[in-house]
Design goal:
The strands form four sheets. The protein has a six-stranded parallel beta sheet, with helices on both faces. Strands 9-12-13-14-15-16 form a six-stranded parallel beta sheet. Helix 8 (about 275-285) links the parallel strand 13 and strand 14 (about 290-295). It is built from 15 helices and 16 strands. The chain is about 40% helix and about 15% strand. Helix 2 (about 50-60) runs parallel beside helix 5, helix 6 runs parallel beside helix 7 and helix 13 runs antiparallel to helix 15. The chain is α/β, with parallel strands linked by helices.
Length: about 475
């Protein structure tokens, strides 16, 4: 049987699917000059092959099937399996319908298909509900899937074959990186050391598909060793939402990477209270190049109301400073639009993001994703009926304190104020000899200019 795997490229903005927003995906459309530059960089640095399709390819190939991959071109075959998202579901559904008209059986996988199967039912032959490996394994063994197909989560993640990147359009490793950025310009490979998330943030969809499970450190290192046989010093992006949750397991992983002599560079996402000097030193020795983490907002009360445990400011600063000392790139994530937010809290969070000093920062608008507790809480206030606009950057509900126009404006102001600073440019270009007092004066002048432009656009500056 010839199986076509489709991870469709979007023509509008920068779309990432797979493990982003739990699998619902995000779409970043430039809405200012600064975000146009950010979008262009994201398209080269953040685009990666789908880890879900990597596993699907491995399962199908191991069963003796011919596997081909496409990002949009029509491909002949017997069955087409389409990775779905919320942000580009219309294109995915239309592409599936077109392939079915060409004579292929069509199936849909992913979080969007699992939680909103009605978006895809009429456009294919089957929709997989749940993590796809169980259902795809049955398909590979000859079962004819039809309708809504329940796919049980695989409890023993070590039993899965390693993703087949040679079958799903993975690019060769990038040869160079931008200053201050660890990830190569194209060519990173995603990996899952665990699935699900043990935390209880009410706005996050990472825990709504299946319970948390972890792979053994031996199995993870086996996959890394497999990668090193096909790529010279691969760059791995661990897509676990909380990579360092188990400190002892992380230390054991670092020990095994070093004992096997595996040469890799990698990045991970975690909570700052799951990092300390000893663990960071061990991770750096094993190849850690970058770490990302959620800060979300400066308000601890807002965090508690959203089910997120606050992290003491002193610890945040200590960990980021230690990362800087070790040469580890840091990326802070922030969310605007919690119900308690107002203009002043936005300004305070932007100021905090700048002062905290992470290498890069990402700002998004609170999005109530289907299946999350936040979705149920905000249901009476949601005005947006187009699922594709639940993209992480577009207001979708009536905020009690800010209009949609103000939310988008403040989002743009966050990117401008964070990145358009002389001190940021000096750090980016590694101009270490520039006097801090001079940079501080230049930052004040640029900040004043930002304030004048903000006042002209919205009658008030983004300031506390």
């Amino acid at each position: 049987m010839r199986i076509v795997l489709a991870d469709l490229r979007s023509s509008e903005g920068f779309v990432v699917k797979d493990t982003v927003a739990g699998g619902y995906g995000s779409r970043f459309r430039p809405f200012s000059r600064v975000t146009s530059v950010v979008c262009a960089i994201k398209q080269r640095l953040l685009a990666m092959p789908s880890v879900q399709l990597g596993y699907v390819a491995a399962i199908c190939a191991a069963a003796g099937h011919d596997v081909v991959w496409t990002d949009g071109a029509a491909v002949d075959g017997d069955v087409a399996i389409i990775l779905t998202s919320l942000v580009d579901y219309r294109r995915e559904a239309a592409w599936g319908r077109a392939q079915r008209d060409r004579g292929l059986r069509v199936g849909f996988i992913g979080l969007a298909a699992s939680k909103l199967p009605e978006l895809f039912d009429a456009h294919g032959d089957f929709v997989v509900l749940g993590e796809p490996e169980d259902a795809i394994g049955r398909l590979a063994r000859g079962e004819k899937l039809a309708g809504r197909v329940v796919s049980e989560a695989i409890n023993d993640l070590d039993a899965l074959p390693f993703p087949r990147w040679d079958l799903v359009g993975a690019r060769a490793k990038g040869l160079w990186s931008l200053p201050m950025y660890a990830r190569p310009w194209g060519g990173a490979v995603p990996m899952l050391a665990s699935r699900g998330c043990p935390e209880y943030c009410t706005y996050c969809p990472h825990r709504i598909l299946a319970a948390p499970r972890s792979r053994s450190t031996t199995n993870i290192c086996d996959e890394i060793e497999y990668l090193t046989r096909t790529r010279r010093r691969p760059y791995v992006v661990f897509r676990d939402p909380l990579f360092t949750n188990d400190r002892d397991r992380c230390l054991a992983l670092c020990d095994e990477i070093r004992s096997r002599g595996l040469t890799i560079r990698f990045e991970c996402e975690t909570r700052l209270d799951r990092l300390d000097t000893g663990l960071l030193t061990a991770l750096r020795g094993a190849g850690l190049a970058a770490v990302s983490f959620g800060v979300e907002t400066v308000s601890t009360d807002t965090l508690r109301r959203s089910g997120r445990r606050p992290i003491p400011e002193a610890h945040q600063r200590r960990v980021i400073a230690e990362c800087g000392r070790l040469g580890i790139v840091t990326a802070g994530y922030y969310v605007f639009g919690f119900l308690q937010d107002d203009w002043e809290s936005f300004a305070a969070t932007i100021e905090y993001a700048i002062d905290l000093g992470s290498t890069v920062a990402q700002f998004k608008v609170l999005t109530p994703y289907p299946g999350t507790p936040m979705w149920r809480q905000l249901a009476p206030h949601i005005f947006e009926h187009d699922w594709q606009r639940f993209d992480g950057y577009t207001p979708t509900f009536r905020h009690p304190n800010l209009s949609s126009e103000e939310l988008v404006f403040l989002l743009g102001a966050a990117y401008t104020r964070f990145y358009m600073r002389p001190s940021y440019l000096a750090n980016y270009l590694r101009m270490r000899r520039t006097r801090p007092s001079l940079l501080a004066r230049l930052d004040e002048r640029v900040s004043a200019r930002h304030g004048r432009l903000e006042r002209a656009a919205m009658s008030r500056p983004v300031a506390c």
